Amino acid sequence: MYLLGSLDFNNKNMEILSKPVFVDILKEETKANAKTLPQKPITQPKEENIIPTDTKIEKKINYSDLIQNSSINELIEEEKEISEENLVSIYSQMIVEMIQSAWIKPKNIQNGLSCDLRVTINSNGRILKYSLIQSSGNIRFDNSALRALKRVETFKFFNKIPSDIYNNNFKNLVINFNPE
């Protein structure tokens, strides 16, 4: 055992240890006091439980199981239907906006009126014929809706509509004319 300095607080030149102190304590054991513990056999861990730290665990995903029920053609067809629905919605909105902008509201008519109109349009967007299917009950309102179609005359954006979408959705229209 090594000790440097003392714990005398009156001494102002007290040295403080800045390095660890090595202390060696030796005790002699007698054979009578020594107890021998039965030693357990050291077991080695099984190799199957050992995962080396320098290896990576890779998980493989089999995508064929995820896509087994849908083929690529079905996915393409579904995407085509979604985009077709979007186009139909966009062009329908454009038709409604053009008719509403051409409509002049008659004076002294009540609110909440609506009528149904049948419209036939060629592939260039020209209105070929139109007729009243269901009246609103107010002749002035019905005539104003028919005049709005006459004012529109041609939908100029029809040349952008693909032919299959035109044939299935826009060749013959039934429009519920309700400007509110």
From TrEMBL:
CC annotations in GO: membrane
Record membrane topology: Single-pass membrane protein
Keyword list, A-Z: Membrane, Transmembrane, Transmembrane helix
Any single Pfam family the record assigns to this protein: TonB_2
Membrane-spanning intervals of the chain: none
Main location: membrane
Signal peptide from the UniProt entry: none
Intracellular or extracellular location(s): Membrane
UniProt entry tagged with the keyword RNA-binding: no
UniProt xrefs under NCBIfam families: tonB_Cterm
The name this protein goes by in its record: Putative TolA colicin import membrane protein
Taxonomic source organism: SAR86 cluster bacterium SAR86B
Taxonomy of the source species: Bacteria, Pseudomonadati, Pseudomonadota, Gammaproteobacteria, SAR86 cluster
